[in-house]
Amino acid sequence: MQAAWLLGALVVPQLLGFSHGARGAEREWEGGWGGAQEEEREREALMLKHLQEALGLPAARGDAARGDEHPEGTPEDKGAWETEEDHQGEEEEEATPISSSSPSPSPSPSPTPTPEDTVTYILGRLAGLDAGLHQVHVRLHVLDTRVVELTTGLRQLREAVGDTRDAVQALQEAQSRAERERGRLEGCLKGLRLGHKCFLLSRDFEAQAAAQARCVARGGSLAQPADRQQMEALTRYLRAALAPYNWPVWLGVHDRRAEGLYLFENGQRVSFFAWHQAPRPEPGSEPSAAPHPLSPNQPNGGALENCVAQASDDGSWWDHDCERRLYYVCEFPF
C-alpha cells in the first residue's frame, strides 16, 4: 500500500504537469484547434481516471456539463493539487513569450518647428545654393580661360598657316623664276641667238594655246619675228633643225580677236606677212583659175583657222586650226 502511494506521489505530479502543459498549449493555440483540443482533454481525463483506479485512489464526480469523471480526494489533497496547478500555470504564463502582435508603444509626436527653425533651414538652403553657384562660377572661369587659350592658339595657328602659305608661295615664285631663267639660258645656249632674242625649237606636239603656256613657263613666249631679217634667220634655223622634212611649227601669231586682224601674243599688230602662195604657172602656159590642190594660197581657213604656223622648208606662213597639235618654237629675251 505504501508502495502504491509512493508510486502515485511520483507519477501523479508528472501527469498533472503534462495536463497543465497541454492546457497551456491550448491557451496559446486557442481559436484554431477547437475539435482537436476537446479530444485531447477527453484523452487526458480518461488516462487520469485509469491511473487513479490502478492506484486505488477514490474517484469523485467531475463537471456535469462535460460528462467527465475526475478523481476526488480529500479537501487537503484537492487544495494541494490546485495550489500546484496554479503555481505551474503562473510559471507557464511567465515563460510564454510576448506575442509580436502586441501593440508597440506609440512614438512620441515630433515637436512643431518654430519660426526660428524655419528661418534657419531657409538660410542653410540658401548657403548651399550660394556654394553651388560659386562652384559654377569657378568652373565657368576655368572654361573662359580655356576658351581664351584655345582662341589664342587658333590665332597663332592661323598666323603660322599664313606664314607657311606665304613661304610656299615664295618658294613657288622662286621655282618659277628659276625655271624661267633656266629656260632662257637653255634657249640661248641650245637655240638661235639673234640680237636681243633667242629662238629654241621644241619637238613636242601641242595645241597653240598649250604651246604658248609652256613657252611662258620657261620664261619666254611663242616666236614673234618682228621684221623680215628675223623671219629669214628663223627660217634658216628651222630648215637646218628639221631637214630633210617639212614640218609646220607654231608661231605666236593669230587672228582670234577679229577675223583678218593678226596680232602677236604680246598684243602688238603684225607689220609684215609671209603667207604661202601657190606656184606661178611656167612662162608660156595659160594660168589656171582653180587653186593648187596641195598648196593653196594662204590664208584660206576663214573663221575655222585662226592660228599661224611656219613651214620649216621655205618659211612660208599657213593658217591652221588652233587645236591642231604641232611642233612649236619659243622666243626668249636676251
Structure report:
The protein is an alpha+beta fold and 334 residues long. Helix content is 51%, strand content 16%. The chain has 6 helices and 10 strands; from the N terminus they run ααββααββαβαβββββ. The strands form 2 sheets. Strands 3, 4, 5, 6, 7, 8, 9 and 10 form an 8-stranded mixed sheet that branches. Strand 6 and strand 7 form a beta hairpin. Helix 1 runs antiparallel to helix 2 and helix 1 (2-28) runs parallel beside helix 3 (75-95). The longest helix has 76 residues, at 115-190.
Features:
334 residues; alpha+beta; two-stranded antiparallel ribbon; 6 helices; elongated; disordered N terminus
Strand content: 15-25%
Discrete helix count: 6
Instruction: Note the overall shape.
Output: elongated
Low-confidence segments, given as residue ranges, are 1-22, 60-85, 91-103
Distance N terminus to C terminus?
Answer: 167 Å
- Class based on secondary structure composition and strand pairing: alpha+beta
Write a brief structural summary:
The protein contains 6 helices and 10 strands; from the N terminus they run ααββααββαβαβββββ. It is α+β, with helices and mostly antiparallel strands.
Spell out the blueprint of helices and strands:
Layout: H1 2-28, H2 34-55, E1 59-61, E2 69-71, H3 75-95, H4 115-190, E3 192-194, E4 197-206, H5 208-217, E5 221-222, H6 228-242, E6 248-258, E7 261-264, E8 307-311, E9 317-320, E10 326-333
Helix pairs in contact: 1-2, 1-3
